[in-house]
Fold Methyltransferase domain-containing protein.
Amino acid sequence: MSIQNNDSGVEIQNTKQIIITIKPEFVDIGLQEFKSADPEGRLIKWFDQGIGLFRLSIGFNELTAYFALQKPIYIQHISPIQTEVQLTQTEEDLQVILKHVNSNSSLLDKNKSFSVQTRFIDSSMERSYKRFEVNKMVSTKIQEMGYTLHIQKPKQIISLAFYESQVYIGISTAEANLSDWSGGQHRFAQEEDQISRAEFKLLEAMDVFDVQLPENSVALDLGAAPGGWTRILLQHDATVYAVDPANLDRSLKKHPRVKHFKETAQVFFTRNESTKFDVVVNDMKMDTVESVELMGRAKRLMKSNSIMILTLKLPKKNMKKRVDQAISKLEKWFEIRGVKQLFHNRSEVTVYMQNKK
């Protein structure tokens, strides 16, 4: 294997194949993002819906450098391929995999934590070993070599993608992969008092965009019912103005830091003049144009450094156009700090913003 050190990191000369993951309904737009970075790159084959094997015409570092400047919205995950190994689906595979990971271990940095991320892309394929067995075997060996294992928030990742009779092995930074989660699939444990699945969207947004809520903040939750996002804001010590004509979950009704305004956001804006908010969130089921206009109306209630998280609900057609138009309008009022089609989004894109002073 030919490698060289340069200012942008380690460039693996024969890393000409990558695996890209995109939500199936956003595949066409995600492919446009890939082509913008590597016009001569091409799709080799789809492993599954939204998971494809691609050939690069440029270096992997060049691709990741482009995406560091032009952050992709719709591509959720990338992993390089340094080695492709033929498998027998028997226990013997484990030692073969370990051998090839070991041969690539010089690409790891001992000053950075690592994690092993194993994906069985073809989940119906019968193998004599489990995903966790592969993870444990490889991570134990790498730890014995003096590297530090961090399953959560690793700085570098050993990616093992199994498909049919092959495993594709790659080592890269979490930043280069666009996510420190396997396949970009953020997973959160379901809590006993969880109110709705929508909570995962807010948790993922806060993680992906590294959102830090101000201490003892005053938050405005537009379209709050049944109260999932309100519950997450409360966990961060916020006082929440929950605006929605519908009822909130019973666990929130008598909470001392929840003020429920049982009315539409439009009515709330006409009645509220004095309260200023540190945080505004909006996950309303509303046309993108209306959602954007609503955030514009909310601006006068925001403090100079207020932060906002908005979910744009998208139609089946012209999704990219709708997002581009929404961002163009929003950036007149706010600083756009992140835009991403998150794992827990459906036909949606999440926008993270800060108020312009």
The mean pLDDT is 93. Residues 131-144 form the longest helix (14 residues).
